[in-house]
Amino acid sequence: MEQILKYFPNLTETQREQFGKLQALYEDWNQKINVISRKDIGNLYEHHVLHSLAIGKALNFKSGTKILDFGTGGGFPGIPLAILFPECEFTLIDGTGKKIRVATEVANSIGLKNVTALHRRGEEEKGKYDFVVSRAVMPLPDLIKIIRKNIAKQNRNILGNGLLCLKGGNLEEELAPFSKNVEQTEISEWFEPEWFKEKYVIYVPL
Q: What value does the CA radius of gyration of the chain take, rounded to a whole number of Å?
């Protein structure tokens, strides 16, 4: 939790409380439904929460922005971002019902009013959004093929509408089809821990 405050010192009391409750909630749910590797649950704040919040460093979403979290799993990056941006609307979708149950229960337990979690595959999602966010769910060309239909025409943020996703490793081949307009930012520009080396926020305007 200290790591969150280090990089986001201006959180409200409510946001601090919401972030603070995540460890116990995910530990409890993880015993029933495995959404985070058992070995990794102790690194929840660094590897999952702070990692998700890198998208919030890449773009400070304006109030009213609509965001789709594609393949949210147990709620990442959607739930941390929904805490950080309470004036934005988040829709979390995943094809695995058990994972959506965890995301729903966690969001409800911390009182998030700006989150809707749905058991739905990306191909079935018809809504329009300013941005789609995701965390390494599938190769970029496949993901973009599915989500292009979901991007709203009208821009309201500094960045044009599109995809903001979290990826790691050598992405040269994956990014090649989008090389003209893709932006790749190493997360270690914002966050110090060694774990963030060679992990990136990828932005593709659509």
A: 16
Q: Is 138 exposed, middle or buried (0-12, 13-18, 19+ CB in 10 A)?
A: middle
Helix/strand/coil for 105: helix
What stretch of H or E contains 166? strand 162-168
Contact 18, 109 (CB under 8 A): no
> Going by C-beta distance under 8 Å and a sequence separation of 6 or more, which residues neighbour residue 169?
198
Supply angle C-alpha 165, 201, 55, rounded to 5. Answer: 75
In order along the chain (206 residues), what is the average pLDDT of each group of 10 residues? 94 98 97 93 97 98 98 97 98 97 98 98 97 94 97 97 97 92 96 97 98
Handedness of CA 147, 150, 152, 156 (dihedral sign): negative
Establish whether the linkage from the previous residue to 77 is cis, with ω within 30° of 0. Answer: yes
64 CB-contact burial (10 Å; exposed 0-12 / middle 13-18 / buried 19+) = exposed
> Cα separation of 55 and 60, whole Å?
8
DSSP 130: S
